[in-house]
Recover the amino acids of this structure.
């Protein structure tokens, strides 16, 4: 590893309890990513597909399957519930998202129709493009919303052996940390007084922590990483994971940029643009929501290239990221990267990447692995930020004083080290 921060898992890494029984997955957001995950799991359980892209199902370390190194929940033992501000179910969500072909959907229709959206903690001021919602918790205060979510989780816990919460809902508007986020007492007062700076995703994170279950943030929202929730997660011994699934363009960036740096080639420009036409793209079309995404996408390159070590190579880079909502594309995102680099004697060169990817097809195995590994963390007694899962996210949350690791190969090494430390006895 050429980056230096050790994974925090080494601080305590007791042998995890075995993963027997059912694992309940409470998903926030019943949209493209969630319905694609559920459809894939149904097909895999039926023996009609393989879990392509998932390390928990297909990965090995030194020739030994990861499932034989650590005890992980079986796919047959996963139970799902979901919240969404639209009265929908996973089948309707999959049809709306148009990720999967019709015949494939027919095979999973019953399983998907069974996952019906529970009323959501929702506030349109955070996601302006979502209008006419019809499935929102009716409550006077944010604290009452949180209590309703906790009641849902307690009910789910009574039906499952263990539970994790996964935020796979829309990207919220970017708003920085405020006074209400600084301590548990301030946060709880803010919930009671409807502080406008407390986001719905923070209400879900609070509910998960109060219910004593792990919380994963698949979006770029500022969510569980505020001081109040970090403190509560430590008190309640809850693992936190985030944030923003690393799937398309940023995945490529964290593969290509370390290679260019390894050869000490210079870079003076990196322009990334995307077109996509799903609801995520529509939500991100609002500049306030795009700002959240931009923050997670822009930080990556600087952390990877470490311009402070080589200002002559990486000290003056124009780095731009654009996302354009273009409805005909649907979920089939197309990303272009124009990289302006230079070599010996300063001669300029160009590298162009055109990634014709499928957003939710890339996200689903990431979601699966995050769910199973967060459950593993909980069984191992790990709480607070789980940076050993940085492999899966665009903007890894790290404990105070640590530097995030972005290069995919380094993240993989950190993941494998952590799993090896948690090896089942
Ligand atoms: N698909 C990818 O490759 C990818 C990659 C990185 C991050 N993400 C992030 O994952 C998230 C989900 O993406 P998607 O493609 O499934 O989006 P989507 O728009 O298809 O679905 C999101 C769902 O969340 C619901 N929602 C919004 N606010 C909610 C709330 N407060 N409570 C409950 N539900 C709420 C919406 O109604 C919608 O059904 C987004 O934040 C996206 O940026 C996706």
């Amino acid at each position: 590893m050429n980056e230096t921060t050790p994974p925090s898992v080494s601080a305590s890494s007791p042998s995890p309890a075995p993963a027997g029984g059912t694992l309940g997955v409470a998903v926030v957001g019943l949209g493209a990513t969630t319905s694609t995950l559920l459809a894939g799991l149904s097909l895999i359980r039926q023996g009609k597909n393989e879990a392509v892209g998932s390390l928990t199902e297909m990965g090995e370390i030194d020739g030994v399957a990861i499932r034989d190194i650590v005890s992980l929940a079986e796919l047959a033992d996963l139970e799902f519930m979901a919240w969404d501000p639209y009265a929908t179910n996973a089948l309707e969500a999959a049809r709306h998202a148009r990720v999967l072909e019709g015949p494939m959907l027919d095979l999973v229709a019953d399983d998907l129709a069974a996952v019906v959206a529970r009323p959501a903690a929702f506030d349109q001021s955070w996601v302006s493009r979502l209008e006419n919602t019809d499935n929102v918790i009716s409550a006077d205060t944010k604290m009452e919303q949180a209590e309703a979510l906790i009641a849902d989780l307690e009910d789910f816990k009574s039906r499952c052996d263990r539970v994790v919460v996964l935020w796979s809902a829309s990207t919220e508007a970017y708003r920085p940390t405020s006074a209400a986020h600084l301590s548990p007492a301030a946060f709880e007062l803010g919930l009671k007084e409807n502080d406008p700076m407390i986001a719905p995703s923070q209400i879900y994170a609070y509910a998960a922590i109060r219910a004593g279950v792990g919380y994963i943030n698949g979006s770029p929202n500022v969510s569980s990483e505020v001081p109040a929730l970090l403190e509560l997660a430590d008190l309640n011994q809850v693992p936190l994971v985030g944030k923003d699934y690393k799937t398309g363009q940023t995945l490529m960036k964290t593969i290509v940029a370390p290679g260019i740096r390894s050869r000490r080639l210079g870079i003076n420009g990196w322009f990334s643009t995307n077109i996509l036409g799903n609801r995520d793209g529509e939500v991100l079309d609002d500049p306030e929501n795009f700002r959240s995404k931009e923050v997670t996408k822009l930080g990556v390159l600087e952390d990877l290239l470490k311009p402070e070590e080589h200002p002559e190579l990486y000290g003056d880079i124009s780095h731009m990221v654009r996302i354009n909502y273009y409805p005909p594309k649907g979920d089939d995102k197309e990303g272009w990267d124009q990289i302006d680099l230079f070599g010996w004697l300063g001669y300029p060169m160009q590298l162009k990447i055109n990634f014709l990817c499928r957003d939710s097809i890339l996200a689903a195995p990431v979601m699966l692995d995050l769910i199973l590994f967060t459950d593993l963390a909980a069984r191992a007694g790990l709480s607070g930020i789980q940076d050993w899962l940085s492999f899966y996210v665009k903007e890894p949350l790290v404990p105070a004083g640590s530097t995030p690791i972005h290069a995919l190969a380094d993240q993989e090494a950190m993941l494998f080290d952590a799993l090896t430390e948690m090896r089942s006895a």
Observations:
- The pocket of nicotinamide-adenine-dinucleotide is lined by residues 28-34, 83-86, 97, 120-122, 127, 130, 168-171, 200, 218-219, 244-245, 247-248, 278-280, 283, 359-360, 362-363 (CB under 6 Å).
- Residues 359-379 form the longest helix (21 residues).
